[in-house]
Design a protein that fits this description.
Belongs to the AHA1 family. By secondary structure, this protein is of the alpha+beta class. It has three helices and seven strands. It has one domain: 2-Layer Sandwich (Alpha-D-Glucose-1,6-Bisphosphate, Chain A, domain 4), CATH 3.30.530. About 25% of the residues lie in helices and about 40% in strands. The C terminus is likely disordered.
Amino acid sequence: MSKLKAITVETTVNASLDKVWRFWTEPEHIKNWNNASPDWHTPKAENDLRKGGKFSSRMEAKDGSMGFDFGGTYDEVVPNKQIKYTLDDGRKVDITFAKADEGLSITETFEPESQNSTDMQKLGWQAILDNFKKYIESNNGSNDKN
């Protein structure tokens, strides 16, 4: 669909691969990190993590002024390594998880949409990724289910 150049965002988290995979894919965790700024939240998340499975999350401004659904279908799932999916609007996303010197590297490459600037999209996706890093690194106690 998109003819714009793919955008890549990445981070490195200080957490085990198993924990990163769990926090990235389990709806109760997704609801805690899937927002780009503190004035947004994700009140609903569903995830059928398998090839052909669907996922969706509802992202809303906390003041109720706006919101949108974000969802798609998994094209490939390699546990603890890679997730590829197609968004409901036809754009492709590829996420890889790999060991790095400082912990675990997460790289997301996605096809941009044409309504917002690529810079704005990159900042938004990076902010969500940074929020994931903050969430997982602040949940490093023995009770991982918070």
